[in-house]
Structure formats: C-alpha cells, structure tokens
User: Fold this.
Amino acid sequence: DTEVTQTPKHLVMGMTNKKSLKCEQHMGHRAMYWYKQKAKKPPELMFVYSYEKLSINESVPSRFSPECPNSSLLNLHLHALQPEDSALYLCASSQGNKGAGTGELFFGEGSRLTVL
Amino acid sequence: QKEVEQDPGPLSVPEGAIVSLNCTYSNSAFQYFMWYRQYSRKGPELLMYTYSSGNKEDGRFTAQVDKSSKYISLFIRDSQPSDSATYLCAWSYNQGGKLIFGQGTELSVKP
Assistant:
C-alpha cells in the first residue's frame, strides 16, 4: 500500500465548478509534487513544493492552483477546467534535501478527473 | 533529439521468460536513475533507484546503468503474469524536484 494518500479517487466536474484534490503523506518528506498523466503517456510535472514553498511551476495554467498548508498536506484547487484537463492527477513526495534532490519519488494512486 | 527514448512496446512474453527493458538518454547532466512500475489505473511504484554505473540487483530485478553510453536497462528474471504493467524509466538532475520520464514500455506476461 502506498504511503501517499490521495482523495478523491474519482472526480467528475463541470467546467464552471470549483473542486479540490487532496494529498497527504506521513513519511516526513519535505518535497511534494503534482503530476498530470494522460492515457498511455508518462507523468508530466506540474508543481513542486520544497519545505512548503513552491519551487517549481511548469507553466501550468492558472485554473490549477496548488497549496501546501503544511509539510504533510498538498492540495490542488481546480476552477474553470476544460475537458482536455481530464486526466489522472498524481501526488508524490520525496525526502527533498535542500539543494540536492535525489529523485526518489513515492507516488499516490492518483485522482482520476473527468471534466464534462 | 528527445532527452529520453524508450520503446513503448507493447511487449508480450511467456511466463518464465527473461525480460529486457531499455532506455537511452542524451543529457549527461542526469545523475540519478530509476525504474518505476505502473499497473493499470494506479500510480507509479518505485522499483529500482541508482546513481552509479554498473548493476544493481533486487530479487528478480536487475537494473543496469552505463553512463558512458547513456543507456539504462531493467532485466526481469523468471517473469510472472503479475509483472504485467507499464515500466517507466526516469532520470533526475542533481538538484531538487524534477523527474524526466521515458514513454513507458507496456509489458504483458502470458501464463
């Protein structure tokens, strides 16, 4: 069982809705990530939080808004999404040593989002 | 040239076969090398992690890294139907946060 927990597992929303995806880890990791994965494609990085500060934003549209309330929690707020945003959204965490990431990421099972 | 090249397959083998999965990369700045396994409709699961050239073994899995040729491989011995999944190679730089993934190879092990 993964130690990164994501909720909800499935989400269907309309283009005018506001919803949030949540992620939690209790491994003491200090870096947390959001990835987006389309069918039969590799995960694509969206955001990285290191020590609760946003360190990487891969030019993600503003309709996706990340939030890191504390070192164990990561949220992704969704607003005015498009049907092409339908995908599996993966949260991951790593030890995240400052200045030297090791790349050893642990992923959650993902939240499958469908935008109608 | 793509940073990472991985044959997407699909690759189908009989149970008990030795499986060889391969990736090449172009960026010599990559320092850390990983293999992830992803079952259908699940998140990727870290299988192997290394930062040096050579072989690393874990049970039926062996990861091989050749930094001079910019080539990594994953060997699966005595393959089982439960090994049927997509296998993703991945790299990172020596700084925080970003993994570069290969396209993933879809493997099917037939009983």
